UniProtKB/TrEMBL annotation:
Gene Ontology molecular functions: ATP binding; ATP hydrolysis activity
UniProt cross-references to Pfam families, sorted A to Z: ABC_tran (PF00005)
Residue span, ABC transporter domain: 4-228
Residue ranges of the TM segments: none
Stated family: Belongs to the ABC transporter superfamily.
Protein name: NitT/TauT family transport system ATP-binding protein
Source species taxonomy: Bacteria, Pseudomonadati, Pseudomonadota, Betaproteobacteria, Burkholderiales
Alphabetized InterPro entries for the sequence: AAA+_ATPase, ABC_transporter-like_ATP-bd, ABC_transporter-like_CS, ABC_transporter_ATP-bind, P-loop_NTPase
PANTHER family tied to this protein: ABC TRANSPORTER ATP-BINDING PROTEIN (PTHR42788:SF10), TAURINE IMPORT ATP-BINDING PROTEIN-RELATED (PTHR42788)
Gene3D superfamilies for the chain: P-loop containing nucleotide triphosphate hydrolases
Alphabetical keyword list: ATP-binding, Cell membrane, Membrane, Nucleotide-binding, Transport
Amino acid sequence: APLLSVQGVTLRYRTKDHLITATYRVSFDVYRSDRFVIVGPSGCGKSTLLKAVGGYLPTVEGQIRLNNQEIARPGPDRVMVFQEFDQLLPWKTVKENVVFALTASGRLERKAAEEKAMHYIDKVNLSGFADSLPHTLSGGMKQRVAIARGMAMEPEILLMDEPFAALDALTRAKMQEELLQLWEDTRFTVLFVTHSIPEAVRIGSRILLLSPHPGQVRAELNSDGIDA
Ligand code: ADP
Ligand code: ADP
């Protein structure tokens, strides 16, 4: 059975006078240890899909199931890594950023959290920077910390939203390579979103190409705010 099953999912945003259909009847299955990539042009609904898998958006139609349980809200079984470099707490060291993520949920004691944090910081080759503050690191290094933090939480699936998009081309290529090595080592399940087809081909074990225009892109709302 798939780890994650997305079946016939439609997602919408409601603005003042429109319903915007961000994804229309999208289906895909992610199996354990897949490197599943969703690729498509800007605005095709990639981030929206990832947010829904994260549990941050309700589905209008269709179902999202993880381990055969319908996803209702965010949970530690799905951890997100974003594009931005500022997803780390700037006043905490690399190690403390990871430790904080592990202890905040109350699931781990400090000692165990520290050990786990160092294990994953080492996996992204940053053990020499465990006591550094984020602003002293390069963009690529910050993203590696964010990946280490995500992996340390040992989610069922790591959700990566354009994690390398803000990096220069050379660093980006290095990070793709490093992610693949990390995957060889750990076989974690990853759902990765990108607008770059070369990146999708490089990273993905399976690839879903989303069309730029979902069906029913816009529905006018009448004066009562109801789908007209
Ligand atoms: P992608 O990640 O592929 O670039 P998004 O999921 O961000 O695409 O956006 C899909 C569609 O939903 C776009 O048409 C976008 O303009 C729209 N959209 C995204 N976020 C919002 C929002 N908060 N409110 C209204 N429309 C939104
Ligand atoms: P960018 O600045 O392009 O994001 P990188 O993340 O590749 O670049 O790293 C920038 C600098 O930091 C490079 O000079 C690199 O040698 C150094 N660096 C990166 N990771 C490590 C590491 N694990 N150990 C030592 N130095 C590192």
